[in-house]
């Protein structure tokens, strides 16, 4: 029985040999440039030093992981990271879908394209520039925002130094910068929906919202699922530079996340092994989530990724 | 064709207003950057949030173009972007096509292994050692070959390819069409929106090349624009002061210069999307082929 | 020494083959041939071509035949200094050597250093900003760098460094670093001269003077525009110059008391200084946004006649402000203050320096060659040439000047560490900096390598500096400060103190 399947597979593969040949360069690429270097994660179990190398550095087992979990800041980091990730998932993920749907409803092409182009511009500004501009508009004493507050009779208020504002500020900046960029992929998916579907539904007298719900959304559902799965894979990964630039003496309590922690202990203090261990931990969490989500997706009749 | 009902009109009006607002909010800071780059330093310093320069000045631009560093690194970036994106598109399409066909065995396993590389990476040092062993150091290939496929974009393309109707492929195969022809003559032309998206993503990815260039290329003349851009943007930021050591203060350029470099380094890549947009147009896809 | 890259050649071959297959597969449509220079400089370390300059190990007879020194270094200008540029050419000429410099932007230097160490493709000289960085220290401990003590006595000019400075740079009692010297005290008060005159005050000598000055700058309309739009002193990026606390008699970082180490924040004097800063903040004498504002943004207040005092590195910042005034058009005179209460904190007096790896400099002869380069660079003749160069540079138009930071970043000579030249401004700055240096107090922990400090230092420092800012803002009170100190102590601060005391004891015995 088993040999039979095996030979059947073999037969299939010979029949479709061209398609396997097409895969070859890509697979080799992954092998050489992704899997070979992946061996480097072993340094999480070493006291690695570049000079002594992978073979010469002493093995220390789970020491670095124990240190991470025993760190008095661990739960603070986990909480802060998870909360920011939740903001990202809850607001940052659906926002581009919503905007793509809105753009999709525009009938005048030149207008649609202009808006599309305008909202994707911020993605090209580095976080340094974004945060600097945020400061100029909202923080400095003569800024538009502070003048507005004064005009309305309020006391000056610093957003960047307000712990309660840290997460909203973070997500608002992220939305501003990346929502437009995120719509692009959905717009591509929307282009694949047949116009005939809309026409027949219009003949049935369906309202715009109903059309969106019954035709547009199902048309991009698989794209949404795949992107959500991919998003989950690096759920504990936040844009380091962004968070780092927003941190200050007052808000570190709520703003310190794994990435900024790794920067502090790993890069500044040069502990490559420890940073790798933290990265490995984040990866394991991401992997678990992806496996779970992929399984769930299949349960609900989606194809999932694998 | 347009929706003439009252509800439809209200819907359109609200939609247009909201999108216009969004466009405004995203555009204004960009205008600030460009305006500042054309302002005099004095005016920039005086004005809280400059939008229209009254003392028009080209000083920032003449300053950044006094040496050939900027044009040269811009040219390098354009070259990396064009060649790199071409390589990416080809490699990604080949693999994505194969992995999107249901008749391919082990494709789920391979997909999982690819997702795995998204989550676990070896880090800079192993990457560097591989590139070094491959003899690519100090060559532009070091920026192209090790980044021939981005797993994230590969998976997205696979998803797009999967959604193409199966009947097309079947009928083509009936006609004796091989896989290569199927990919290049049917699948790829049908996936123009997806390929346009990927072109943009990959182009932007290469445009932002920074760390790899510094690590793999020792010859500073080969460095792309981002190295120059980040040096100018970051040198005026926190991080240079450590334990009472102050270095490099005298290298901080005026902010208008910073804005000019941002403008020059961003503008070309911003133009890519408008050019690709026509491939996002609806209806070119199925309607035309099915008919 | 055994290294992984020297592993089996079969493995390498497979790798190379695989990479080439991928390359070919990917590029076939571009008509691109194989990688240009694929055998590049990867397999032969740059060290090898330096030997051609040897031949004469003894004496100055070697003059005329220049050696090549390869080096890795950072840069601060927009672009890396050119090989053909004035800075590099002058250094080569004065030091009688050819330089082959691998430039790396400051903010990725650590990463570049790591991959360089991992691959073994070392230059002959590593310019290191902080030799006490874990990764450098571990390198030292595993025998990566030449220990220089046995060789320095052959090079007279390498023995003329300030002994305090050399001591600060020693690692476990041995010399590995040829320092890039810096002034012992760099921070000082920078005050607007015209404002000082307008409010009719002298340079502050005491804390009270200083306070009165800030009040006057806030309330007495020092710019004479009839508006209440000025304040006293500018701070940024959440950092409060520690010199202010020294005025109150607080120690420089640590206080050495009967062989025990007490952290500055644990002393009553430091607390008094903190209360003072909090008062300045409360009374609006310093900018309210100092915990978040970045320096470029903060400095706009100076250019726009909003603030009249700053406490920054005199040598680096004052010339920078004058340079800025040339572009903003708003010119005013700045003057450096005296040490308040006759006190100042000394720094370590260096910006790291040159370290010489054994992987690239394999023999003693090669080492001597590299050392001779540094020795020549510090000779009386070279020093004079440098002096002429930097003095002349000062007199040029802004556009024609080279960036003196680029020069200081490469050489190991004191000649450019103070603002050079005979201009009134630079003479004043030099005089004030020396005045500060004369009264400065050293940090007793310098040169003592506490393992806990090295491993967790950044976290521990941040804990305290956060608490300090929060206290100044009024977010926490003295009790909150105590809690933070307690936390610092239990998380490793206490251990650092113990380790420092033990190391200090060892050093004395």
From TrEMBL, chain A:
TM region(s), chain numbering: 20-45, 86-106, 118-138, 170-191, 212-230, 272-297
Q: Which GO terms describe its cellular component?
A: plasma membrane
Top-rank lineage group of the source organism: Bacteria
Q: Which GO terms describe its biological process?
A: transmembrane transport
Per UniProt, the keywords (alphabetical) are: Membrane, Transmembrane, Transmembrane helix, Transport
- The record's principal subcellular location, in a coarse class, is membrane
User: Where does the record place the ABC transmembrane type-1 domain?
Assistant: 78-293
Q: Where in the cell is it found?
A: Cell membrane; Membrane
Name the membrane topology term. Multi-pass membrane protein
Known PANTHER family for this protein?
Answer: POLYGALACTURONAN_RHAMNOGALACTURONAN TRANSPORT SYSTEM PERMEASE PROTEIN YTEP, PROTEIN LPLB
Annotated family: Belongs to the binding-protein-dependent transport system permease family.
Question: Protein name, please?
Answer: Sugar ABC transporter permease
Taxonomic source organism:
Paenibacillus sabuli
TrEMBL record, chain B:
Which coarse location class describes where this protein primarily resides? membrane
Location relative to the cell: Cell membrane
Indicate the transmembrane segments per the record: 12-35, 74-98, 110-129, 141-161, 182-205, 257-276
Listed GO biological process terms: transmembrane transport
Q: Does the keyword Lipid biosynthesis apply?
A: no
Protein origin, superkingdom? Bacteria
Q: Where is the signal peptide?
A: none
Q: Domain ABC transmembrane type-1: where?
A: 74-273
Q: Name one GO cellular component term.
A: plasma membrane
What keywords sit in the KW lines?
Answer: Cell membrane, Membrane, Transmembrane, Transmembrane helix, Transport
Q: Which is an annotated Pfam family here?
A: BPD_transp_1
UniProt xrefs under InterPro entries:
MetI-like, MetI-like_sf
Q: How does it sit in the membrane?
A: Multi-pass membrane protein
Identify its protein family. Belongs to the binding-protein-dependent transport system permease family.
Identification of the protein by name = Carbohydrate ABC transporter permease
Automatic annotation (TrEMBL), chain C:
Q: Where is the signal peptide?
A: 1-23
Recorded hits in InterPro entries, A to Z, give: Bact_solute-bd_prot1, SBP
Cited SUPFAM superfamilies = Periplasmic binding protein-like II
Gene3D superfamilies according to UniProt: Periplasmic binding protein-like II
PROSITE patterns of this UniProt entry?
Answer: PROKAR_LIPOPROTEIN
Compositional bias (Low complexity)? 31-44
Which of UniProt's keywords are assigned here? Cell membrane, Lipoprotein, Membrane, Palmitate, Signal
Q: Which domain of life is it from?
A: Bacteria
Residue segments, region Disordered: 31-64
* Matches recorded under PANTHER family: ARABINOSE-BINDING PROTEIN-RELATED (PTHR43649), POLYGALACTURONAN_RHAMNOGALACTURONAN-BINDING PROTEIN YTCQ (PTHR43649:SF33)
- Name the record gives this protein: Extracellular solute-binding protein
What organism is this sequence from? Paenibacillus sabuli
Taxonomic lineage of this organism?
Bacteria, Bacillati, Bacillota, Bacilli, Bacillales
């Amino acid at each position: 029985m088993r040999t039979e399947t095996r030979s059947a597979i073999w037969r299939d593969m010979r029949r479709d040999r061209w398609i396997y040949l097409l895969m070859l360069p890509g697979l080799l690429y992954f092998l050489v440039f992704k899997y070979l270097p992946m061996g480097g994660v072993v340094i999480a179990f070493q006291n690695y030093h570049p000079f002594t190398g992978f073979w010469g550095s002493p093995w220390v087992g789970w020491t670095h992981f124990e240190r991470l979990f025993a760190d008095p800041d661990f739960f603070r980091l986990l909480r802060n990271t998870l909360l920011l990730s939740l903001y990202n998932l809850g607001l940052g993920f659906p926002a581009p879908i919503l905007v793509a749907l809105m753009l999709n409803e525009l009938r005048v092409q030149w207008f649609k394209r202009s808006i599309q182009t305008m909202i994707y511009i911020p993605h090209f500004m580095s976080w340094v520039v974004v945060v600097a501009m945020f400061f100029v508009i909202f923080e400095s004493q003569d800024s538009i925002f502070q003048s507005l507050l004064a005009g309305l009779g309020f006391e000056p208020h610093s957003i960047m130094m307000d712990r309660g504002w840290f997460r909203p500020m973070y997500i608002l900046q992220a939305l501003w910068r990346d929502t437009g960029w995120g719509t692009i992929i959905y717009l591509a998916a929307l282009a694949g929906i047949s116009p005939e579907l809309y026409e027949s539904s219009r003949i049935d007298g369906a309202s715009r919202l109903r059309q969106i719900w019954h035709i547009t959304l199902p048309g991009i559902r698989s794209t949404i699922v795949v992107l959500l799965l991919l998003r989950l894979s690096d759920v504990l990964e936040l844009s380091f530079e962004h968070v780092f630039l927003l941190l200050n003496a007052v808000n570190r309590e709520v703003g310190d996340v794994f990435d900024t922690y790794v920067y502090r202990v790993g890069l500044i203090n040069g502990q490559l092994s420890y940073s790798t261990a933290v990265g490995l931990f984040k990866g394991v969490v991401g992997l678990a989530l992806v496996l779970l989500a992929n399984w769930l997706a299949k349960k609900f009749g989606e194809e999932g990724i694998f | 064709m347009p929706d003439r009902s009252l509800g439809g009109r209200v819907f359109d009006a609200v939609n247009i207003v909201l999108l216009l607002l969004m466009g405004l909010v995203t555009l204004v800071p960009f205008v600030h950057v460009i305006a500042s780059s054309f302002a005099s330093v004095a005016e920039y310093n005086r004005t809280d949030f400059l939008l229209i320069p009254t003392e028009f000045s080209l000083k920032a631009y003449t300053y950044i173009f006094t040496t050939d560093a900027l044009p040269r690194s811009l040219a390098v970036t354009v070259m990396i972007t064009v060649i790199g994106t071409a390589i990416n598109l080809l490699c990604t399409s080949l693999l994505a096509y194969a992995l999107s066909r249901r008749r391919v065995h082990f494709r789920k396993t391979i997909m999982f292994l690819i997702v795995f590389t998204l989550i676990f990476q070896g880090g800079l040092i192993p990457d560097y050692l591989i590139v070094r062993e491959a003899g690519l150091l100090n060559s532009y290939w070091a920026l192209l070959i090790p980044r021939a496929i981005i797993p994230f974009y590969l998976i997205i393309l696979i998803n797009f390819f999967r959604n193409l109707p199966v009947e097309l492929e079947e009928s083509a195969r009936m006609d004796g069409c091989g896989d290569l022809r199927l990919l290049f003559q049917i699948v790829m032309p049908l996936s123009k929106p997806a390929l346009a998206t990927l072109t943009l993503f990959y182009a932007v990815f290469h445009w932002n090349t920074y760390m790899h260039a510094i690590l793999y290329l020792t010859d500073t003349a080969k460095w792309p624009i981002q190295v120059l851009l980040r040096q100018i943007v970051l040198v005026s930021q926190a991080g240079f002061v450590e334990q009472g050591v102050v270095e490099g203060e005298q290298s901080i350029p005026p902010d208008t210069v910073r804005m000019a470099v941002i403008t020059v380094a961003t503008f070309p890549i911003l133009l890519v999307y408008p050019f690709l947009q026509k491939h996002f147009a609806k209806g070119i896809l199925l309607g035309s082929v099915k008919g | 020494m055994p290294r992984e890259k020297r592993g089996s050649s079969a493995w390498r071959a497979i790798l190379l083959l695989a990479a080439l297959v991928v390359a070919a597969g990917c590029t076939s449509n571009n008509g691109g041939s194989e990688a240009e220079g694929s055998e590049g400089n990867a397999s032969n370390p740059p060290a090898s071509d330096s030997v051609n300059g040897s031949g004469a190990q003894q004496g100055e007879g070697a003059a005329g035949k220049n050696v090549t020194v390869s080096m890795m270094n950072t840069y601060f200008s927009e672009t890396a200094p050119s090989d053909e540029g004035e800075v590099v050419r002058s250094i080569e000429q004065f030091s009688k050597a050819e330089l082959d410099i691998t430039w790396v932007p400051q903010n990725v230097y650590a990463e570049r250093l790591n991959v360089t160490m991992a691959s073994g493709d070392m230059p002959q000289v590593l310019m290191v900003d902080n030799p006490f960085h874990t990764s450098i220290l571990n390198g030292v401990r595993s025998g990566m760098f030449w220990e220089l003590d046995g060789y320095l006595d052959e090079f007279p000019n390498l023995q003329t460094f300030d002994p305090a400075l050399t001591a600060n740079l020693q690692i476990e009692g041995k010399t590995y670093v040829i320092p890039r010297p810096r002034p012992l005290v760099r921070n000082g008060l920078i005050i607007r001269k015209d404002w000082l005159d307008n409010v009719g005050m002298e340079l502050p000598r005491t804390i009270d003077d200083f306070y009165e000055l800030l009040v006057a700058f806030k309330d007495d309309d020092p710019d004479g525009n009839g508006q209440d739009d000025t304040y006293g002193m500018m701070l940024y990026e959440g950092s409060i110059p520690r010199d202010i606390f020294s005025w109150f008699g607080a120690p420089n970082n640590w206080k050495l008391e009967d062989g025990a180490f007490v952290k500055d924040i644990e002393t009553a004097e430091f607390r008094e200084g903190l209360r003072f800063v909090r008062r300045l903040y409360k009374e609006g004498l310093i900018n309210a946004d100092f915990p978040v504002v970045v320096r470029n943004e903060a400095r706009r207040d100076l250019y726009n006649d909003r603030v009249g005092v700053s406490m920054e590195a005199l040598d680096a910042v004052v010339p920078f402000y004058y340079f800025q005034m040339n572009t903003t058009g708003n010119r005013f005179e700045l003057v450096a203050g005296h040490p308040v209460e006759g006190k100042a904190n000394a720094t370590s007096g260096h910006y790291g320096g040159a370290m010489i790896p054994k992987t690239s400099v394999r023999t003693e002869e090669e080492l001597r060659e590299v050392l001779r380069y540094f020795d020549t660079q510090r000779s009386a003749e070279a020093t004079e040439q440098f002096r002429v160069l930097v003095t002349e540079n000062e007199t040029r138009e802004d556009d024609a000047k080279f960036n003196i930071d680029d020069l200081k970043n490469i050489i190991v000579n004191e000649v450019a560490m103070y603002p050079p030249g005979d201009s009134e401004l630079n003479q004043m700055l030099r005089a004030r900096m020396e005045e500060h240096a004369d009264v400065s107090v050293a940090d007793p922990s310098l040169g003592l390598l506490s393992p806990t400090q090295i491993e967790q230092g950044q976290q521990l420092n941040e804990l305290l500096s956060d608490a300090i800012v929060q206290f100044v803002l009024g977010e926490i009170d003295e009790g909150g400060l105590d809690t933070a100190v307690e936390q610092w102590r239990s998380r490793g601060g206490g251990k650092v103190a113990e380790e420092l005391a033990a190391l200090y004891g060892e050093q004395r015995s």
